Amino acid sequence: MALALLAVSSFGFFVSPWIGDIAIIFANLTLMSGVASLTLLFSTWNHSLTRQKRIIVLVVLTSASLGFLYLMANSAPISRIHLVNATLGIFSIWQIQCLTGVLKKENTYQVKLLIFVELFQLSSRILRSLLLISNPDIYFISLHEEDLLGFSLGIASSLSNVLICILITNFYLDKLMQEHQKSAHAIENGMLDSLNALSMVRDNETGNHIQRTKKYVQLIASRLREMGIYLDELTPSAIANMTKAAPLHDIGKVGIPDNILKKKSSLTDEEWVVMKTHALLGEEVLKAAKVEDAKHTKVLDAAIDIAGGHHECWDGSGYPRGLRGVDIPLAARIMSIADMYDALVSERVYKEKWSHKDACTEILRLKGIRFDPAVVDAFLFERENFAHIAELYGDEK
Predict the structure, then answer these.
(1) Which of 134, 202, 288, 372 is deepest in the core (most CB within 10 A)?
(2) What burial class does residue 364 get, using C-beta atoms within 10 Å of its C-beta: 0-12 exposed, 13-18 middle, 19+ buried?
(3) What residue numbers bound the domain in which 337 lies?
(4) Does residue 191 lie within any of the structural domains?
(5) Cα(244)–Cα(237) distance, rounded to whole angstroms?
């Protein structure tokens, strides 16, 4: 309502030279109504709107409107200018107070600019009235006969309403975009949780394995960034995405038969060939879950890289594609160490638990063979934190 009234008011002032008093009345009444509506709007932003305040706004607006109509019939334009300036000034002060409260909670550029525009309008109205008061002999029948400075101040104040409309519209568009992003992230998180649950139902790994590997990935990625390595790929958001994606590294095991997946003894060569297909299967499952035109799928992108590439080796001897060196996605290279360390230091039905020291020695031995040398260096810097996480989130027996 506020934006519509201000737009109508601007149109009324524009056509007033041709239509005359009717347009002047229409423009001023809609202007005061629009500004009054803005006062109520900004009060809702500040969560301070009450029934009492609504009544006060209505009383001020009604009194000013009746006073304007009376002065229109019985007085010169100067009196009407003072009345309108006083009314709008009261509402401007109220709006500035509300917006200042909003700024404490939402430090957005729109609110800051709105306060600036309100201060400009208040100043121009005060200055315009002071100019008229300082020249008591001035007299004009039509607003368009006012002196250049006074008329310019009035026009500037009216034009600034256009900026207010733009800022309010932009503010709501930003709010709408934020809600859309929250909804998109909520949907994505829900989908990731569902995929995680699916992975855990089929896999023989534990929930603590998920927690440990997530934290391992975050440690290595953060350490690499601190070391100044792979800075372009390891932005804070990228690290967060690959950390969220880490639990999905073995989701492809949903397609592996139980007689192989849950076998307690060593796999035969034929069974091992089937087991190794879980990397490509996981990649395909995650690609199928991704909506092609979605804008918020960075976590899924990282999960696809991890699922399909965490068994690749730095020297090209890994699977499923035999990728070599930096051709292997960075998230997969990080996940590779996190997954192997956790597998080594955890007890399984088919293997004994390794010590932390032996696991570190083995990973160091595979530097430049299975693992990215830079990622191994980052792991070694964080190896004590790895031991702490392994103990803190150990599997219950």
Answers:
(1) 372
(2) middle
(3) 203-392
(4) no
(5) 11
